[in-house]
Specification:
639 residues; alpha/beta; Beta-Lactamase; Heat Shock Protein 90; 5-stranded antiparallel sheet; 5-stranded mixed sheet; rod-shaped
C-alpha cells in the first residue's frame, strides 16, 4: 500500500464528516438568519403602514388633501419605500407616490378589513385600513358625512423594495462560505499533520514488508517516536532478525537434507542399476537350465509314450507334474525378468510395419495346445491388415491376455478380435471364464495382485497384466476391462494409428517338416542345451546334429542339405558370431525353404531390436517344447 493512499484515506475519513457537519449546521443557521431578515423587513413595513394609517386618520376623515399630502411627504421620507398610496373609504385615491405595485392595488380593490401583507421577489406590499378612533376637537375641520369613531375612513398601501434584504442575505451567505472555507482549510492542515504521523510509519512498514517478501531480511524500521508505532517498529525489527536466523538455519538444514537425499538417491540408483545389470547379465544363464529342463521333460513324455502302457500309466502323472512345474517356472522367470527390464527402462517401442493376422496367428498357434488341454476353443477374427507398431510388445500383450483367459476359463471359448477404426485399432480378447468382481477391476493391473478364486488353482506372481499395462503404455495406447461374474471377461486394448490393407511381402515361409527331410541342425554353445535338443528330437524320431560353433555345422549343412528339415540357432555363440550372422550363413547354404528359428535368453533392448529386425522368428528362453515344435512346423507326437 502506498503512503499517498494511506494519507488520502485518513484525510477522507477525517474531513468528510467534518465538512458535512459544518455545511449542515452552517446552512441551517444561515437559512434561519435569512428568514429573520425577511421577517424584520415585513415587520418594519407593517410598522410604517400602521404609523401612516394613524397619521392619515384625521386628514382622511376630514377630507383635507393638504394634510394627506403632508402625511404622504412624511412617510415617503422613510428608507426603502418605493410606493405609497392613500385612498378614502370608497377606494378613491387621495395621494399616490411612486410604484405601489400590482399586488398592493389588488389588495386595495378588495377593501380588506385587516392588515394584508404580500411578498414577491422584488417588493413587500402592505395594505393597512385607516380607522377613525376619535372625532376631532371643536375648532377643527369637520369630518366627512357618515364618519364616526370605529369606522374605516380609508387605506394606506406601502411597497418596500427587497433589494437591501437580498444584499444582506447575500452578504450573509458569502460570510458563511468564507467561514466554512477557513474551517475546512484549518481542519485539512490539522488532519494532514495528524495523518503524517500515522501514514509515514505505515508506509515504511509496507516497504519493509515488501523487502521481507523478496527475501531481504535486512529491512529494518526506525525505532523513533513514542507509543504504539515505536513498539511496532521494535517488534517488527525483532521479527525480521528472528526470521533471518530461522531462514539461514532452514537453508542449512535443506542443504544438508538435499545432500543426504542425493546421496541416498545415488545409492538407490546404483543399487537399481546393479540389480538391472545383474538380471540382464544373468538372464541368459538363468534361462538356460530352465530351457533345457523343459526340453528334457518333453523328450521324457515322448519317450514314455513309446514304452508299454503300464510304464506310461505309472510314470506319466509324475512327468505331467514336472512339465507343469517347468512351465510355471518358465512363466515366473519370464515375468520377473520382463518387469526388471521395464523398471530398468531398457524397454522401448520401436514401431515398424507389422502384419496383424500373421502375428496373431503365430501367437495363437503356440497357445492353442494349452487351450485344447482345458477343452477351450481358441478362435480369432483378424482382418489382413498392417499395423504400424512394435511387434514384440504387441506379441507380449497377446500372449499374456490369452494365457490369462486360458487360465481362468473352465469351458467355452476364447476369441481374439482386431477391429480397425478411423484413427485407432481395437484389440479385444473375450473369454467365457469365471469373470472378475467389480471391486477387483481397478486392482488387476497392479504388480503382484492376484484375484482369489476358489474354482481356479492359484499360480504365478500376478505380473502378467502388469506387463500388459506397461506394454500398452509404451505403445501409446489404453486398456480397459469389462467383466461379469460367471459370464466372462473382455479386455479391450486401444492402439493409436490406422490399420492399412496388407501389402504382399517376400518373407521366409515356415514350412512343416516333410517325410524326406528328417534332420534338425542345432547351433548352441551350451552343452546342456545341445543335449536336451538331441533328446527331444530323438524322442520324436527326428535326427539331430548339434554343434557349438558355426564352422562344423556349415559343413554338415552342405553335406546334408537335402535332408535338413529345420535349424535352431542360439543368439549367443562363442566363436565371435551372433545368432543372426550364423542364421544368415546357414540360410545361404540351405535356402529359404528350410525354417530357421533364433532362440535367445537376452533381455537387452538393443539385442531384442536387432533380433526383431533380422526377419527370423525369435523364441525367448525358457520355452516349452510346444512353442519350439510349432515354430518349426513339427508335431509333438500327439502331445
Amino acid at each position: 500500500m502506498r503512503s499517498g493512499s494511506i494519507r488520502s484515506r485518513i484525510l477522507l475519513a477525517a474531513l468528510v464528516p467534518l465538512v458535512l457537519a459544518v455545511i449542515s449546521v452552517g446552512a441551517l443557521l444561515l437559512t434561519r438568519h435569512a428568514m429573520e431578515i425577511e421577517r424584520n423587513l415585513v415587520e418594519r413595513t407593517v410598522s410604517l403602514a400602521r404609523q401612516a394609517a394613524m397619521l392619515a386618520e384625521l386628514p382622511l376623515a376630514t377630507g383635507s388633501r393638504t394634510n394627506v399630502q403632508a402625511v404622504a411627504d412624511f412617510v415617503e421620507r422613510s428608507v426603502g419605500i418605493v410606493g405609497l398610496s392613500l385612498t378614502d373609504r370608497d377606494g378613491a385615491t387621495v395621494d399616490n407616490r411612486g410604484n405601489v405595485g400590482a399586488t398592493a392595488l389588488r389588495m386595495l380593490d378588495g377593501k380588506p378589513l385587516s392588515v394584508q401583507v404580500e411578498r414577491d421577489p422584488h417588493l413587500v406590499s402592505v395594505v393597512h385600513p385607516v380607522v377613525l378612533f376619535a372625532l376631532p376637537s371643536s375648532g377643527s375641520a369637520p369630518v366627512n358625512a357618515g364618519a364616526s369613531p370605529g369606522q374605516r375612513v380609508g387605506y394606506v398601501a406601502l411597497s418596500v423594495s427587497r433589494e437591501d434584504e437580498r444584499r444582506s442575505v447575500a452578504r450573509l451567505w458569502w460570510t458563511g462560505a468564507a467561514i466554512l472555507l477557513v474551517a475546512v482549510l484549518l481542519s485539512l492542515a490539522l488532519t494532514r499533520a495528524a495523518t503524517r504521523a500515522v501514514a509515514e510509519p505505515l508506509a515504511a512498514l509496507s516497504t519493509a514488508m515488501g523487502r521481507v517478501a523478496r527475501d531481504d531480511f535486512s529491512a529494518q524500521l526506525p525505532e523513533t517516536g513514542r507509543g504504539e508505532f515505536r513498539r511496532l517498529a521494535v517488534d517488527f525489527n525483532s521479527m525480521t532478525r528472528a526470521l533471518h536466523a530461522a531462514r539461514r538455519g532452514l537453508r542449512d538444514d535443506v542443504a544438508q537434507a538435499t545432500a543426504a537425499l542425493d546421496a541416498r538417491t545415488r545409492e538407490a540408483e546404483a543399487a537399481n542399476n546393479a540389480k538391472s545389470r545383474f538380471l540382464a547379465a544373468a538372464s541368459h544363464d538363468l534361462r538356460q537350465p530352465a530351457h533345457a529342463l523343459s526340453l528334457y521333460v518333453a523328450a521324457l513324455r515322448q519317450g514314455l509314450r513309446m514304452k508299454g502302457s503300464d510304464v506310461s500309466a505309472a510314470l506319466m502323472p509324475a512327468v505331467d507334474g514336472i512339465q507343469a512345474a517347468s512351465r510355471s517356472l518358465d512363466a515366473l522367470l519370464n515375468a520377473v525378468l520382463d518387469i526388471s527390464r521395464f523398471d530398468a527402462g531398457v524397454v522401448s517401442a520401436e514401431a515398424a510395419e507389422v502384419g496383424a493376422r500373421a502375428l496373431i496367428d503365430e501367437a495363437l498357434t503356440v497357445l492353442r495346445s494349452g487351450a485344447s488341454e482345458r477343452g477351450l476353443r481358441l478362435r480369432s477374427r483378424v482382418p489382413d491388415v498392417t499395423l504400424h507398431t512394435d511387434a514384440t510388445l504387441l506379441r507380449r500383450i497377446i500372449d499374456n491376455l490369452v494365457s490369462n483367459a486360458i487360465r481362468f476359463s473352465r469351458s467355452g471359448g476364447i476369441l481374439v478380435a482386431l477391429r480397425p477404426r478411423r484413427d485407432h485399432v481395437l484389440l479385444q480378447v473375450w473369454d467365457q471364464g469365471s469373470g472378475i468382481a467389480a471391486a477387483n477391476l481397478p486392482l488387476i493391473f497392479d504388480e503382484f495382485y492376484q484375484v482369489k478364486r476358489s474354482d481356479v488353482a492359484q499360480g504365478g506372481m500376478g505380473l502378467g497384466l502388469a506387463i500388459v499395462a506397461r506394454s500398452v503404455r509404451l505403445l501409446g495406447g489404453d486398456i480397459k476391462v469389462s467383466s461379469r461374474l460367471g459370464s466372462g471377461t473382455c479386455f479391450t486394448v486401444t492402439l493409436p494409428g490406422t490399420a492399412l490393407p496388407r501389402r504382399n511381402h517376400v518373407t521366409s515361409v515356415m514350412r512343416p517338416v516333410t517325410h524326406d527331410r528328417q534332420l534338425v541342425l542345432v547351433l548352441d554353445d551350451d552343452a546342456l542345451i545341445r543335449s536336451s535338443m538331441q533328446t527331444l528330437f530323438s524322442a520324436l524320431g527326428v535326427s539331430v546334429h548339434a554343434e557349438a560353433s558355426i564352422a562344423p555345422l556349415l559343413d554338415v549343412a552342405r553335406q546334408e542339405k537335402a535332408s535338413v528339415a529345420a535349424i535352431v540357432v542360439d543368439y549367443r555363440l562363442l566363436d565371435g558370431f551372433t545368432g543372426i550372422e550364423a542364421a544368415n550363413r546357414l540360410r545361404e547354404v540351405v535356402g529359404a525353404v528350410v525354417p530357421i528359428v533364433l532362440i535367445t535368453g537376452d533381455t537387452s533392448a538393443e539385442r531384442l531390436r536387432a533380433l526383431t529386425a533380422s526377419g527370423f522368428p525369435v523364441l525367448h528362453k525358457p520355452l516349452d517344447s510346444d512353442r519350439l515344435l510349432a515354430a518349426l512346423g513339427m508335431s509333438g507326437g500327439g502331445e
